[in-house]
Amino acid sequence: MKHKIQHRPLLDHPQAVIDELFPGEGFQYVCTTSLTKDGCWAADVFYRDNPHPEYDNRYVGIWMSCGLPAITSADRVEEYDFWMVEDDLGNLHYSQHRHDMNNGIDGGRSYFRCLGSPTVVKMKVKDGEFVEAQ
Q1: CB-CB neighbours of 84 under 10 Å
Q2: Model's pTM, two decimal places?
Q3: Residues 3-35: pLDDT tens digits?
């Protein structure tokens, strides 16, 4: 079943930024999530099919720092659980980082908390796409 996942990218035009930084490298936007153990900040995460020739990563995280794009490897995104809540229209929402209450869900990758009794779905990222976790 293909879910309609609602994203809230940090960058105004995430694909335009990635195309400018990595022209012709085939990146696609995946999600916006924390990538650090403390989970205090988030990055827009992008994926490409072929690993980087020098660094061997398929995912990159980008966020703005002092007005300039900051970039990090983000392959660890495939290790994370994404707890999501379903809204009345069947859309799924996730929290991007700690203390990021979004549509009744909070915690990012640090913890899981939701308000009320919504339908909850556990997802993971695999090969640049969200899939239901086993």
Answers
A1: 26
A2: 0.90
A3: 799 999 999 888 898 888 889 889 999 999 999
